[in-house]
Amino acid sequence: MGHFAKAYAPAIRNLFARAALLLTISFCLSLPLSAQSEQSTAPDSSVGQTQGTISGSVIDQTGTSVSAATVKLTRPDQSDTQQEQTNDDGLYAFTNVAPGPFEIIIVENGFATKMISGTLKPGEALVLPKAQLALASASMEVRVSESEVEIAEVEIKEQEKQRVFGIIPNFYVTYEKDPAPMNTRQKMGLAWKSSVDPLTIAGAAFVAGIQQATDSFPGYGQGAQGYAKRFGATYADVTISTFLSGAVLPVIFKQDPRYMYRGTGSGRSRLFHAVASSFICRGDDKRLQPNYSNLIGSFATGGISNLYYPSTDRNGAMLTLETGLIRIAESAGANIFQEFVIRKLTPGLNRKAAQPVQTP
Questions:
Q1: Which of 259, 107, 82, 291 is nearest to 170 (CA)?
Q2: pLDDT value at residue 310
Q3: Is 182 helix (H, G, I), strand (E, B) or coil?
């Protein structure tokens, strides 16, 4: 037995050596495979480096930064949506943005929506050009309306051009269908304009001359002094009547002192409208009411005239009543003349088609 082990010992040692060599080679070969396997299962740290950033700024047409504007980042497939608001400097930024095509939508009140498209490369820090917002355009109907005061001002300017035969002032008639009511300043202004008109003064001078020639109100006497008194009294009558019936009382009672030209309808209806206008007028609220301004003004003018007419020509209450009735009749006659004659004798008048007006 010992002889057998001794005889085969070298072969056995050689066998073990070969086995050991095979084990060593096998172990060495297994190390790279294991490392490669571990490396393949480890997470790829380079994936995070493929994401990028998108930033930019928003301005208006003047170049001023637009703050608090809504900026939305979207994808064509809607897989990734982010939303930000611009800061006080109009800046915005999106981080951790996956590469690929994108679209930026900018929305702000009063401006048209702005859209920016692009493509982000892996790991790119993309800075977009400044986004300039344009003012929003909208189709709308704009109605500009003037106030009644402004409309009345325009109408009064037209009235102040109304002169019979192009000479005699005829300011207290309106040919408008629905004239705007006058305010206090306009009523006072129209009375002043009428009173100081050269033709008004000339008319008073003419009447005074007739009175002088016929020796009306003999208490004034004759000569230059008598004429001056007659002229002063006549002009005072005109001025007081104009301001009382055409301004002061219309302001107090809120009434329109003008004659409202009708111009259409039958002759009878127009005649009735003219005469009735001395007793019924339109208020500043455009409703019909008793014409207190004309009625009270007519009698008040007669009463005041007792203060400066000669004592021998005064008749107290009777003169006041008589003067008042005469003035009311005169206003009715003047209205008839306005309705049927005056308009035809006024050159340069705006010949707009006459429109029906509310009849008293």
A1: 259
A2: 85
A3: coil
User: How many CB atoms sit inside 10 A of residue 237's CB?
Assistant: 20
pTM of the model: 0.57
Structure confidence at residue 13 (pLDDT): 55
Alpha helix (H) ranges present in the chain? 2-41, 148-159, 184-195, 198-214, 223-243, 249-253, 267-276, 292-305, 316-340
| Spatial separation of the C-alpha atoms in residues 157 and 161, rounded to whole Å | 7
Separation in Å, CA 345 to CA 66, 195, 200: 66, 21, 18
Which of 36-45, 236-245, 308-317 has maximum average pLDDT? 236-245
265-319 pLDDT, tens per residue? 999 999 999 999 999 999 999 999 999 999 999 999 878 888 888 877 766 677 7
pLDDT band of 43, cuts 50, 70, 90: very low
**Domains of the chain, first to last:** 48-132 (2.60.40.1120), 148-345 (no CATH)
Instruction: Identify residue 134 by its one-letter amino acid code.
Output: A
Total residues belonging to the chain: 360
Please calculate the CA angle 15-19-25 and round it to the nearest 5 degrees: 145
Cα separation, 311 vs 92, in Å, equals: 95
The closest alpha carbon to 195, from 233, 160, 243, belongs to: 243
Supply the mean pLDDT for the chain.
83
Picking from 270, 277, 274, 273, the residue whose alpha carbon sits closest to that of residue 293 is 277
Measured CA to CA in angstroms, residue 88 lies from 65, 101, 135, 181, 331 at distances of 7, 28, 20, 52, 73
